[in-house]
Amino acid sequence: MFTSQGPTLRELAEQALTSVERGYDLLAPKFDHTPFRTPDRFLDATAAVLSRLGPFDAGLDVCCGTGAGLRALRTVCRAQVTGVDFSAGMLATAADQDRTRRAAEPSERNGDPGPEVHWVRGDALALPFAGAFDLAVSFGAFGHFLPAERPALFASVHRALRPGGVFAFPMGAPSPVTSPLHWALLGFDTVMRVRNRLRRPPFVMYYRTFPLGEVRADLEAAGFAVELYPLEEFGRRPDGSPRCRLVVGRRRD
């Protein structure tokens, strides 16, 4: 699962036994060499759908980590993109990587510097923005929020958006009970629940606490009109339903 540049098993154990924030501070330098970094195909599929829903001026990546999601935002936002995360280590790595990318791509931009990039340390449950963005995205972060926290999370994003602004994120279909992945994720969640009962501070990271029906209801309660877009790049299940969707909530006022 990990390259030789990724964290060792001992390092992962150390990170899992601390808090979420401290764990990601420790993991940050090696995060992009793990399977936890959102694959580019998810980012590109998301950007393809968003390009049809724009244009957008200002975009926000909620729980941006090392900044992978800005790959999607930069292609659909004209003025500025902002990454927000509560881990100082992840933000520092994101900023370093963005500087390296910009230095390596001047000829490809043909003199166009692209949207301005900003990095902000903040709590997704209380984002330090009000009506500042046309678009918000998030990738792979929702397992860090308990179901009871979803209303506050979605309300926080809603406040950060301008009227009519879009909140988008990809969601895979649940694995069938007969799939090894189903049991692997169930086992992971079980281990994390036991860990959190026995040790403080808790490390909140679950894979099976974000079902589409409940998520859609919470988005609508927060003031979003919700639409689902199939990401056909990932194919369809035997029953014809998409294996992956882009959930798009548009702020109602």
Describe the structure.
With 253 residues, the protein is an alpha/beta fold. It folds into two domains: 1-36, no CATH class; 38-174 and 211-251, Vaccinia Virus protein VP39 (Rossmann fold). Helix content is 39%, strand content 21%. The chain has helices at residues 9-16, 20-27, 40-53, 70-76, 88-104, 106-109, 150-160, 180-198, 212-222, and strands at 56-62, 77-85, 116-121, 133-137, 161-172, 224-230, 244-251. The protein has a seven-stranded mixed sheet, sandwiched between helices. Helix 1 (9-16) runs antiparallel to helix 2 (20-27). The protein is globular and about 50 Å long. The N and C termini lie far apart (45 Å). The mean pLDDT is 91.
Structural class, please?
Answer: alpha/beta
Tell me what portion of residues adopts beta-strand conformation. 15-25%
Low-confidence runs: none
Please tell me the total number of domains.
2
Percent helix, as a range, is 25-40%
Alpha plus pi helix count: 9
User: Architecture of the largest domain, CATH level 2?
Assistant: 3-Layer(aba) Sandwich
Question: Order of strands in the sheet with the most strands?
Answer: 3-2-1-4-5-7-6
CATH topology of the largest domain: Rossmann fold
Strand elements, count: 7
Rg from Cα: 18 Å
Distance between the termini: 45 Å
**The CATH class of the largest domain:** Alpha Beta
Assembly type: single chain
SSE order: HHHEHEHHEEHEHHEE
Shape estimate = globular
* Main sheet attributes: strand count, strand direction, barrel closure: 7 strands, mixed
CATH homologous group name of the largest domain:
Vaccinia Virus protein VP39
**Mean residue pLDDT:** 91
Keywords: Methyltransferase, Transferase
Biased composition (Basic and acidic residues): 97-111
InterPro entries: Methyltransf_25 (IPR041698), SAM-dependent_MTases_sf (IPR029063)
Domain Methyltransferase: 60-165
